[in-house]
Design a protein that fits this description.
363 residues, alpha+beta, 45% helix, binds adenosine-5'-diphosphate, binds 2-acetamido-2-deoxy-1-O-phosphono-alpha-D-glucopyranose, binds magnesium ion
């Protein structure tokens, strides 16, 4: 259960900076200007991230590493990466009870997030941002990271979880979504491409973000340039293909993730091209040939996997993803599957866009 404590109560337990300076030229009273940087306070979802120590350890290590690299390159580390604000007891979070674990970050000023509508420039910049994040972390020791959600992008295990949800049929919904289940299982054939490649060493294991929604990057309010990759809970060992594909799952869609009019849902090749250009401008030299060849497939894979997760959650009675209407997870699953079909039909065109991205990124 959510704690009764207010945000202000919780903030008392963190090292929040305040400053009071004499202010103005009054002749009567003593006047002070009180300033305080802005902060973000977050309750960690501990039913998903069950080990806050490991979670915050990952975030501390990754942000400290990024900070050093940004400073060495003469960049602005306070804007380029998140800053965790310690609790007064020296910890990285403040725990009220097992369900109420809080952390604080410094607020990164002068930035904005992009939710649904995005331009080619936004996508290019998102590509630069996420590509740069991967590039800077290329020599971070992968073994030092905890797996905050086990098998997060293990697509075959996600399919197994779907099969189990169908067998158990906890919410009594399996009969009504036969068509969707069929689509999911019919397409299972290629779903192990990345996992298998990582297992047999053809695809390198890298430090990846694993949840590269476009709203997990902050853009400069004025210039629109990518400033900071945020939402680092899922930074874990993974494949570059996860991060590439996951951005375009939403970033490349003509519609929102839960649009119910499927005639409005298709995959925008131009969005793919813009993102790929930005991403490859950072990562072109670091990627292997196998990774480059699989970039188009990664988009289909991440979209398919997410559709499976929505459908599984629908069958389980909506216990994982927040929903805002009754069949929300089903709407999301249908939407993702429509996109999968559309991406499949365009894979050859996407491969051409990768080739163009590789040559423009060389400039
Ligand atoms: P969730 O896991 O729920 O998606 P996020 O960590 O992505 O949570 O944070 C939610 C939103 O809060 C972000 O999309 C962004 O708009 C804003 N945000 C988070 N951290 C910061 C920060 N340090 N500075 C500015 N805005 C932030
Ligand atoms: C969740 O937390 P958020 O909204 O950035 C989910 C992603 C899904 C996404 C679907 C930890 O992302 O994996 O792709 O929803 N995050 C987690 O919109 O499960
Ligand atoms: Mg987020």
């Amino acid at each position: 259960m959510k704690t009764e404590m207010t945000g202000n109560d919780i903030l008392q337990h963190f090292e929040i900076e305040t400053n009071a300076e004499s202010y103005g030229n009054g002749h009567i009273n003593d006047t002070y200007l009180v300033t305080m940087p802005r902060y973000i306070l977050q309750r960690i979802n501990t039913s998903i991230f069950t080990n806050p120590d490991e979670l915050m350890d990952n975030i501390e290590n990754v942000t400290a590493f990024l900070r050093r690299k940004l400073i060495a390159a003469g960049g602005d580390a306070d804007r380029g990466t998140l800053t965790v604000v310690p609790a007064k007891d020296g910890g990285k979070y403040y725990k009220v009870d097992d369900n109420n674990v809080f952390r604080v970050y410094r607020f990164i000023e002068g930035t904005k997030t992009i939710e649904n509508s995005k331009t080619a420039e936004d996508l290019y910049e998102a590509g630069v941002g996420f590509g740069n994040f991967q590039k800077l972390l290329a020599d971070f020791p992968v073994d030092r990271l905890y797996e905050t959600i086990r098998d997060f992008h293990h697509t075959p295990k996600r399919i197994e979880a779907l099969r189990e949800a169908v067998r158990e049929d906890k919410a009594g919904r399996a009969e009504s979504v036969k068509k969707e289940i069929e689509f999911a299982l019919e397409n299972a054939g290629w779903a192990d491409s990345v996992v298998k490649g990582m297992e047999d060493g053809r695809i390198p294991v890298r430090v990846t973000h694993n949840d590269t929604k476009i709203n997990n990057i902050l853009f400069d309010q004025e210039s629109g340039k990518a400033v900071c990759v945020i939402d680092l809970d899922t930074v874990m060992p993974g494949s570059a293909l996860y991060d590439f594909g996951d951005v375009l799952r939403m970033g490349g869609s003509s519609a929102a993730e839960d649009e119910t009019d499927l005639d409005k849902v298709w995959f925008e090749v131009s969005a793919f091209e813009a993102f790929a250009r930005g991403y490859l401008s950072e990562m072109k030299d670091a990627l292997t040939e196998t990774e480059i060849a699989l970039l188009p497939l990664s988009v289909k894979l991440m979209t398919y996997e997410c559709g499976i997760r929505f459908l599984t959650d629908y069958l389980n009675g909506d216990t994982y993803f927040k929903i805002h209407r009754e069949h929300h997870n089903l709407d999301r699953a249908r939407n993702q599957f429509k996109l999968v079909a559309d991406i499949s039909a365009r894979e050859a065109v996407l491969a051409e866009a990768v080739e163009r991205g590789m040559s423009t990124a060389a400039v």
